[in-house]
Amino acid sequence: MNAVTGIVENAKKNLHIIIYSPFPSYSGGRENWLFNLLPYISKDFNRVFIYALKSGQDAFYDLSSLDNVILKKVTTLYRLGYVYMALNRLLLQTLFLLDITVVFRLGVKRALLKEIKPGDVIMAMNSITECLPALDVKSNGVMARLVSSVRGRVPEELGVRIPWLRKWFNTLERDCLSRCDAVLANGYDTQAYLRDIGIDSTVVPNGVDIRNFQSPSTDDPDLEMLCRLKENGKRIVLTVATLRKIKGTDDLLEAGQILINRGVRDFLIVFVGKGMQNEYKRKARELGIQDYVLFVGEKKNIPGFLSIADLVVCAFGGGGMPMSVLEAMAAGKPIIAWDTPTYVQLFEHRSDGYLVKNLDITALAEGIKTLLEDEKLSKKLAKRAQEKASQYDWPIVAEKLLDQLASHPQEVVRLN
Length: 416
Description:
Blueprint: H1 3-10, E1 14-18, H2 29-41, E2 47-53, E3 69-74, H3 82-90, H4 94-115, E4 121-124, H5 131-139, E5 145-150, H6 154-161, H7 166-178, E6 182-185, H8 188-196, E7 202-203, H9 221-231, E8 235-240, H10 249-261, E9 267-272, H11 277-287, E10 293-297, H12 302-307, E11 311-314, H13 323-330, E12 335-338, H14 341-344, E13 354-356, H15 361-373, H16 375-389, H17 394-406
Parallel strand pairs: 1-2, 1-4, 2-3, 4-5, 5-6, 6-7, 8-9, 8-11, 9-10, 11-12, 12-13
Helix pairs in contact: 1-17, 2-17, 4-5, 6-7, 10-11, 10-15, 13-16
């Protein structure tokens, strides 16, 4: 099936997307995935409803050009903001558990039942929280196709917050996914994980807009400053990610200290992404590398920042095919990453990427040093990575997604 066939099958259907996020006010991996695919998939449906958390934040993504996309904001405990966060910490994540399993679930169910019609399609943007209200609606007798887009190992992520319920989350995820009509994986590593728990899935990866990287804009004060530093001999080591331990922020700072101790001084590590800057600025001072790092915050002009990088570090945990990695590939930059399934599915060491032992900070520092010094190798990796990026262009990814959304309902295959 292709996108044209999908248009015929979906012409009178509505698509209902469930996401536990204040989308479009919050930017993250799955939010970026959804925003970039909406212009393509919205054309194939009568209307697209997005059920998301209500918040008082300004929109990060502009949906004004998508006339048939309708936001349905669900009021949950998240709406309480700092009060919710403080009480949730005090009560050991009990409020979070209540929000994802009861409050959000009931709110989405009520909103969904008002809009859904027989034959419509539901896309749950993960395997537990978003699946629960969709399964409740189907249990009410509504004939709709339910597709779950799995974005990594959800029980592990939830188990970090609520360790004593990790086994229950594992059981709940398997039960939810086994009752879906189709399951999507955001990478071959996620697909392998799902296979291990007995769920068949189809890979629909992240994507990238190749055109945005052909002539990026550098109209940004931080970019102008970085360009001047480059002219004065600074090598830009860039990473694009939220400032968090799981995103490799700590690892890259520590690798920077090793580089300095080994006599490498002509570099600047630039962190592009939201997060607690003060915490990591303090760590940089403790490591003695405050003059070798720059935090520029969250930026919309990612192509511009990538354009001035000498190399890109991708030291994230998690699973799937990270969009920031695909963007670095499209920008034609040499990439250094961990030797884990997340990156092995994208790169071959010293062919189109540079892979180092997972969580080995010394190896990470040595790899950065190698790429900064070996211009011939860096150019080869950058060129081949850019060539490979074309297969992840958004229209190609959209066609894969539409194929799954438009397919006729069938039970997910359990592999054991």
